[in-house]
C-alpha cells in the first residue's frame, strides 16, 4: 500500500500534536500538515494534496460541518471525524457521516485514552484512504417496501464497518414496518451508537434503538449493538432476546460482527438471514460462514457499492456467502430469503 498522506484539522494545538504523533508512529502514514481551522485547511488541501483528512467539527471561523459540506460538493475526499464524546458531539458526528465522512473516532479524554485512540486511529485512516469518494447528492426519500406476510421465528443479522452508517440507513429505511426482528453490529465508538440508532429511528418505518442487556426482540424492531460491548442473540422457547456483555476485542473490535453472527448461527440456525456490508478487515467473515453452515441464507454487499470492500470480500473468499448484490438491492434481497 502506498504511503497515506494525512492532514490533521483541529483548533486545539494539543490535539493536533497528539494526533500527529500517534499517526507518525505508523510507517505507512505521513502527516503532511496540520490546520487550526477550515480556511487554513482549504489552502493546505490545494497545496499538499492529502489522501485523508482528520477533522474536528467544533471549530472557530467555520464549523466542521459547513466545511465538510463544501468539501464533499467541490472536492470529495476521505474524512475521518475526530469528535468529543458529549451528546452534542455525537449528534454532530452523525451529521458528518450523513454529509460524507467515512468514519468517526472519539477524542482522547476521561472515557477514551490516548492508548485507545492509538489502537484505532491508524487503522481508520488507512481504511479511509481506500474509500471510494463521490460528490454528494441530495438524498431522495426512500419508500419502505410493502408489509410482509407473517413470518415466524425469523431473525435478520447485519454487520458493517467503514461506510456502514450510510449503508445501514439505505437498508433499514427500506424495511417494512413488520420486518422480522433485526440485530445489527456497526463498528462505532461508545455513545455514538445511541445517537446513530436515534437518527435511524427517526427516518425508518421500523423502530431502531441501541440494545440493552436482556432486550426482547419482536417484529418491527432493530437493535444496534452499543459501542464497546458485544451483542449476542439468545432464545428462550419462541422468544429471542439479546445479551450485551463485556469481553475481549475480536478483530480489534468491540462490538464484533463475528460475535453476533456466531451466536445467531447457534441460536437461530436456518431461521436467520445474515448480511455483511461495507467495511475494512475480516470481522464477520467466519461468523457468516457459520451461519451458512447452520442453514441460514447469507448476503454480501458487492464491491462496486462498498466504500471499502474488505469484510464482504473476506466473507466471499471463505465461502460464507450465498448472494452478492449492490447496496440498493440488499433490503429486498434479505426479505426474499425469509
Q: Short description, anyone?
A:
The chain has 338 residues and is α/β, with parallel strands linked by helices. The protein has helices spanning 13-24, 38-48, 64-74, 87-99, 114-129, 164-172, 192-201, 257-267, 285-293, 311-317, 327-336, and strands at residues 4-9, 29-35, 52-55, 79-83, 103-106, 155-160, 182-186, 207-210, 221-224, 230-236, 239-245, 272-276, 297-301, 323-325.
Tags for this model:
14 strands, alpha/beta, 338 residues, 5-stranded parallel β-sheet, 7-stranded parallel β-sheet
How would you sum up this structure, described in words?
With 338 residues, the protein is of the alpha/beta class. Helices cover 35% and strands 21% of the residues. It contains eleven helices and 14 strands. Strands 8-9-7-6-12-13-14 form a seven-stranded parallel sheet, with helices on both faces. Helix 3 links the parallel strand 3 and strand 4. Helix 1 (13-24) crosses helix 5 (114-129), helix 3 (64-74) packs parallel to helix 4 and helix 8 (257-267) packs parallel to helix 9. The chain is elongated.
